Amino acid sequence: MTTPHLRIGPADSPPRAPREDGFQRIAAIDIGSNSIRQIVADVDPDGGIRVVDEMKAAPRLGAGIGKKRELAPEAVAQATEALTRMATLARQLGAKRIEAVATSAVREAANGLAFVTAVKQQAGLKVRILEGEEEARLAWRSALAHFELGQGRAVVVDIGGGSVELALAAEGLVERLITLPFGAIRLTEKYLGDPSSPKGLKRLRKRVRGEIERALPVRDWRGAEVIGSGGTFTNLAGMYLATQGMRAARSVHGTRIPADEVERMLEQLAGMSMEQRLGVEGLNAGRADIIVAGLAVVAEVVARVEPRDVAASAFGIREGLLLETARVTPAVADPGEARERSVRQFAERCHYETPHARQVQKLALQLFDSIGARLGLDGTDRAILSDAALLHDVGYHINYQGHHKHSYHLILHADLLGVSPEEQVLVAHVARYHRGSAPSQRRHRDFARLDATARRRIRRLAGILRVADGLDRGHVAAVEQVRVRWLGRALRITPVPAARAKSLRLELWGAARKAALLERVAKTPVEIVGPGGKAVQPDESTPGDSDGE
Description:
Blueprint: E1 24-31, E2 36-43, E3 49-57, H1 65-68, H2 73-92, E4 97-102, H3 104-108, H4 112-123, E5 127-129, H5 132-146, E6 153-159, E7 164-170, E8 173-180, H6 184-191, H7 198-215, H8 218-221, E9 225-229, H9 231-243, E10 256-258, H10 259-270, H11 274-277, H12 291-305, E11 309-313, H13 317-325, H14 337-349, H15 354-371, H16 379-391, H17 403-412, H18 421-432, H19 445-448, H20 452-470, E12 479-486, E13 491-497, H21 505-513, H22 516-522, E14 526-528
Parallel strand pairs: 1-4, 4-5, 6-9, 9-11, 13-14
Antiparallel strand pairs: 1-2, 2-3, 6-7, 7-8, 10-11, 12-13
């Protein structure tokens, strides 16, 4: 089976009718302790997934369950009404199957079976009550479809309102499934009834810490990758992206939050009043009262595993259920594999000019390998440049005029597996600045919103990409490779012609004409040197590459 590709968002929503024969239209509903979420999607025989519609409600079935052991009548009424709407939508959209599952709140409630019966009578839905280990397995299936987990060890954490599930896996194979009664609602009600008292949080963390230490042998799982799903993680990612100026990110999926940021954000939010939390950018207002408890669980997992960062998944039990219902087994992807495939498939959907894109990518990476370290760039920047080079001209899919701007918007709203939201924003900007005006805080609003570090990286990478693009000005791959020397007085770039090349005149001119940004970021003149050893002087009066913002 191929790795499924989920596409979320209005820009990617397909027509409501199935696109072609062979697709299964399936609805999956996750009845959680905090919220109820439905996804309706078309699934093809190879496991490709395309979202048709989504619906969400937040009746908080888990509220009070820790003490009363019963689902509150008001929550039951709201949940039943929401499920009736969801079932109606799924049927009207032509779903052949509707799979609904309930988790810890319904599982533990004395009137859980009565709720399931009421849903059957009113909504016509048969609800399956999951055991904790089944929740963990669905969360794992979803993570496997959306992250590269073929190498090393991983801990997949799904935090709900009533419980937390962990899937421990090595080399893409599940080794152990764990469920603990540490959901965000349950912990908030038990320990954080008085938000002004720090003692409650201390007791909460001590209780969680003890159980996690027993569940996770540190000798086996220290340093494992940690991937989290559920509202706690998506809100954590949203808040972190906001601090980085990444407001343009279309999704929080794949956001990697540094481990020390988890503790810092927990401390910050724990010291706030409810009114202050409502003003935190990236935090959903409906989760402001339970976010501290959720983050405390994350912090204890991080303290035990000691990962470099935590990856947030926008996909969880609901998507795992969808894959299970469609009988799709996600392919296990090694590091970099899903990313390369996803970027290439996106380029193909935009009908990109493959030879030119790959030539520019090759030359850009040769330049990077020669000067990247001198510009303060690292391996992550190399991957960003590689993707931006391959995608720089996808804006032709809209039209030629201003195609660099179209490339920016297309990349920004693409579904690119293995690319974090921060990286996707950077890829989009680097591609946008492969031609036209150089990046400007004064004239370019989206660029100005980024933090200083991101802007600096974009300028350097775009400087390299411009020269690489100029070296294939005629789109004929006339340059085989580039030789680079960083002299005391200049950065010298000498293109080596391909065996079939008759002349490099156009390529030399193109690179020289687009070298100004690289000169600025390198803080030294850039010489584009021809076969005779003479530096080329661009003819600035010739129109072609500098038009438009």
